[in-house]
Amino acid sequence: MTSTTAPARGTLLILNGPNLNLLGTREPGIYGSATLSDVEALTTAAAESAGFGASCLQSNHEGVLIDAIHAARGTAVGIIINAGAYTHTSVALRDAIAAVELPTVEVHISNVHKREEFRHHSYLSPVCSAVIVGAGIHGYELAVSALDKTLS
Ligand code: CA2
To answer: Would you say the CB of residue 121 lies under 6 angstroms from ligand 1?
Structure first.
C-alpha cells in the first residue's frame, strides 16, 4: 500500500482555459515557447516549495472549468486561473469564482492592455484577489507567491 502525505498548506487549483493547450506550438512572439506542461510543472514546483500541493486542469470547455471551480470548494485553498478568451466573455465563470469564495488569482501571459480593445475588459478581475498580466509564464509563479501571502 502506498500513502501520500497531504500537503501541509492544502492544494492550489491551477486552471487554464481555451487554446492554452497550444502554448509552445504557435504564436511564440506573444506567448513564448514554453508548453502547457512546462507551465504546469513550474507552477506545481512553486506551489510545492511554498508548502502547497497543486492540481492542474486545462479545458477548452466553459462548463468543465465551472465544474472544476465548484469542486474546489472543500478540496482546494486557492485558485490560479488563466481563463483565456473566456476572461472577456464569461459572466458564468465570474459567478462561479464569486460563489466558491476562495482566493483566486487571474493570470494572463501577455499584456492584454497592449493588445486589442476587446482584451482590455475582464469579467473575472472584480471577483479575483489579484490580477497578473504581461509577466509571461513567470506570472503563474507570481500568482503562487500572491496566494502564499494571502493564505499566511
Ligand atoms: O495572455 C493570456 O494569457 C491570454 O489569457 C491568452 C488567451 C487570450 O484570449 C487572452 O486574451 C489573453 C489566448 C490563449 C491562446 O493561447 C495560444 C497559445 C499558442 C498559440 C495559440 C493560442
So the answer is: no
What's the rounded Cα separation, in Å, for the pair 85 and 101? 23
Output the CA 8–ligand 1 centroid distance in Å: 33
Distance 106 CA to ligand 1 centre (A): 13
Domain count, the chain: 1
Q: Which domain holds residue 128?
A: 2-150
- pLDDT tens for 102-128 read 999 999 999 999 999 999 999 999 999
* 47-74 pLDDT tens trace: 999 999 999 999 999 999 999 999 999 9
Instruction: Kindly give the distance from the C-alpha atom of residue 121 to the centroid of ligand 1, in angstroms, as a whole number.
Output: 14
CATH number of residue 93's parent domain: 3.40.50.9100
Q: Which residues are catalytic?
A: 31, 108
